[in-house]
Design brief:
The protein is of the alpha/beta class. It has 17 helices and 9 strands. Helix 2 (about 25-40) packs across helix 16, helix 8 runs parallel beside helix 9 and helix 13 (about 280-300) packs antiparallel against helix 14 (about 305-320). The termini are far apart. The relative contact order is 0.13.
Length: about 400
């Protein structure tokens, strides 16, 4: 009997050794952290601040041409991967190209069509999605096992300088509006265009106040530093950066400098970290600048468009890559400067052409949370980043809206 026990003990030890050799300790730990992240996402809705699937679907012929319930390998988002990623709430971007300002189109109509697509997405897949306009609705949907569809307009030109249009967008369920996109507007300066107003004009300040009154979050992704400062000064509700990262780690004007991160803390807002490699990795950003300079030189030399495109494609393929770990660095930096209550996730999936290694699509959110856990983050702090912070901001915006509306009445 003793011999049998010795054999069993030796056999069990051998099995353990074989398992450890087949699965190195770091891999076992990674699996454990991911499993822990998935358990966390059963207790809190992961809310992503920005996904451009409405425009991506529009570009493929609309909802009738895309079976969102099936795998969509040419997209970064579909229902199977949303479920695998533990997504509990998604701000779908009603993106409005700045070209609509110049091409004789109506930005408001483009925005309406994007909003309509989100509503139809929810109706087409009612077992998966449910509309949400409040924090309480997000929580109800989460308990029912459904992914909340929230709407954010990307580009303040969508209101066509009309507060009436802004109010009607709010009635259609829009919960945030990005004040600018790539170009400066009549009332607000963009980060990636020349400054004309030193931030917000008086009408721009009126837009911010009206957004507060109707309960729409003021999104400061894409705006200039002066616009960030002006909007935070005017806004009575917490502001949002729906998809921006930390400028201290990647020196792009789209990112948020530390001085403004400290203002976000005082305001109670949240910065939702962007996954676009050019905003994540300083090496990628600098390399991208060199590619742009090379393409301009070729264009000036009279090179044909095919050669320029091939050159850009070749350089992008061979250039440096951003990583999941670097995205985690941005999250940690914002936590260190603004506090853990003021950081979230804003992927920009399906609005970006490249992704960090390890964050290829919406199924990868648990891997990012697992990295935070590996770095020693508490489960409660991971819950804040995943969704609690943005739920708090939504509630605060709803409270401010009630107070301002009551004061007007």
């Amino acid at each position: 009997m003793k011999a049998v026990r010795q054999f069993v003990g030796w056999s069990g030890s051998l099995t353990a050794v074989l398992l450890l050799s087949a699965y190195p300790p770091d891999r076992l730990a990674a699996q454990d952290y991911r499993a822990q992240a998935l358990r966390i996402l059963k207790t809190v809705p992961l809310i992503d601040g920005h996904n451009d699937i409405p425009d991506a679907v529009r570009g493929r012929g609309g909802l009738d041409s895309v079976d969102f319930a099936a795998s969509q390998p040419k997209l970064m988002t579909d229902i199977p991967r949303l479920r695998a990623g533990g997504v509990g709430g998604q701000f779908w971007s009603a993106y409005v190209p700045v070209t609509t300002i110049h091409g004789g189109e109506h930005p408001a109509v483009y925005a309406l069509e994007q909003i309509d697509l989100v509503h139809r997405l929810c109706r087409k897949y009612p077992q998966t999605f449910a509309e949400a306009a409040t924090a309480a609705a997000v929580e109800r949907n989460f308990k029912a096992g459904k992914i909340s569809c929230l709407i954010g307009i990307e580009g303040g030109h969508a209101i066509e300088n009309s507060l009436g249009a802004l109010r009607m967008f709010a009635r259609l369920g829009v919960r945030y509006m990005t004040l600018t996109h790539w170009e400066t507007l009549d009332w607000a300066d963009a980060a990636t265009d020349s400054a004309k107003h030193n931030g917000l004009t008086p009408f721009g300040e009126e837009v911010v106040r009206e957004m507060n009154r109707v309960g729409m979050l003021v999104d400061l992704a894409h705006v200039s530093d002066a616009t960030m400062v002006g909007a935070i000064r005017v806004s009575r509700a917490p502001v949002l950066f729906s998809h921006s990262s930390a400028r201290a780690l990647c020196d792009h004007v789209r990112n948020v400098p530390d001085s403004i991160l400290r203002m976000v803390k005082a305001n109670g807002g949240v910065v939702m970290v962007n996954f676009y490699p050019t905003f994540v990795s300083e090496a990628v950003r600098a390399y991208g600048d060199s590619v742009t300079a090379r393409s301009r030189a070729l264009r000036a030399a009279g090179a044909d468009s095919a050669l320029i495109a091939d050159t850009v494609r070749s350089r992008e393929t061979s250039g440096p890559k951003a990583t999941l770990s670097q995205v985690a660095d941005h999250i940690e930096h914002i936590r260190d400067v603004a506090g853990v209550d003021h950081v979230g996730l804003g992927s920009d999936f399906d609005g970006i052409t490249t992704v960090p290694v390890g964050l290829e699509d919406v199924s990868k959110f648990p891997d990012l949370l697992a990295e935070l856990l590996r770095r020693g983050w508490s489960e409660q702090d991971v819950r804040k980043v995943a969704g609690l912070n943005v739920l708090r901001v939504l509630r605060d915006a709803e409270r401010v809206s009630r107070e301002m509306s009551a004061a007007r009445d």
